[in-house]
Amino acid sequence: MIINGMKMETKTICPKCKAEAKKNGKRNTENRGLIQRYECKICGFRFIENDGFYRMRNNPQKVSCALDLFFRGISTRKVQEHLGAFYPHNASHKSVYKWVVKYSNKISNYTGKLNLNVGQEIQLDEMEYHRRLNRNQRGTDVNWFIDVIDCKTRFMVASEYVGRRENEEIRAVLKQAKSRTQDQIKIVTTDGLQGYYDCIKKSFGYRNLRKNLVIHNQVNASQGEGFNIMVERMHNSLRARTKTFRGFHGSIESANSIMKGLSIYYNFITKHQSIGCCPYELATDLKLSSNNKWLELIKLSKCL
User: Fold this and answer.
1) Domain that holds residue 42
2) Burial per residue of 240-269, b for 16 or more beta-carbon CB atoms within 10 angstroms, e otherwise
3) Which residues are CB-contacts of 164 (< 8 A; sequence separation ≥ 6)?
4) pTM of the model
5) pLDDT tens-digit map of 78-126
6) Is there a domain that residue 288 lies in?
7) pLDDT in tens, 206-218
8) Alpha-carbon gap, residue 63 to 83, rounded angstroms
């Protein structure tokens, strides 16, 4: 396994006594085929290694295929129809949705801990979304997706789907960006929203209690100062997928999980035209060697 540019020799550890285990034949499962069984060298406990699909009743290729189809713009019902044509043991569209939420969160927990090597400027912006309320309620609720992108690598550094666009929510995303980039950022570019200035000051701190540690570059499009092209270009990519939702439905947490999955798709799965590769290839030391990057990311995040 290659992690952060280094080849790692992985050893299978017994979940019971934490000692090293050895291979002990294979177990034949109905939906996932042959699975390697292990036996602990100390206590003799036999177990199946958690590869990210433990106790799943569908094989990894099918689940990762469903994720890829969904984030490329196909609805859960159409994904179900596609799987039914190629896999005898089909899953409902509700199962597809649960896979999207589950593995988006799991992979995001892993990728959120990767060390980043970014440029000196980030761009901060937000998008407005409408979320349909539950059956007992009528109408929609206005929510926001706040995100930060690195101008050099095009990597989405931080993001969050939130119920309101207040200073508290903006600061939370900025603190997340600062935590991941450490002292690499020198310029934060935003639009003309007045609340950004105070949020940037409190998130990135002060120098000598008087001067900000970063420069706040405020671009006001209404005054002819141009646009934040890079973050707006990324928003166009996200809107190309989310516009087919006709608004999110359900809780803010589930909507946030789907947006985390879209962030993974943007950073790790699809190539960016201007840089000719995926953003993670420039921003991290992670090496994904498989064509099925969804499956590889799930296996890397199996312990989380």
Assistant:
1) 1-49
2) ebbeeeeebeeeeebbbbbbbbbbbbbbbb
3) 143, 144
4) 0.84
5) 999 999 888 877 789 999 999 999 999 999 999 999 999 999 999 999 9
6) no
7) 655 555 678 889 8
8) 10
